[in-house]
Amino acid sequence: MNNDYETPERTRERLRQEELLNNPFGHLKDGMDRSQHSSLVNLVSSLGWKGTLILIIVVIIVVIVAQYF
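^ thats the sequence. predicted structure below, dont judge the formating
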């Protein structure tokens, strides 16, 4: 079998990663839409580490505020 052959899954993932590098903020809504229908991994990969950190901080603040009401 030829090792240079790229599966369709890997091709899609490679193209998605290249798009993400070119336009990181444009894919936020797309990642959120995909996370509603698939998994949290798509959302986190579209946000990057900074966006994921901000999302975690917001969730923690919401939980703390919700405890007082």
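The chain has a mean pLDDT of 77.
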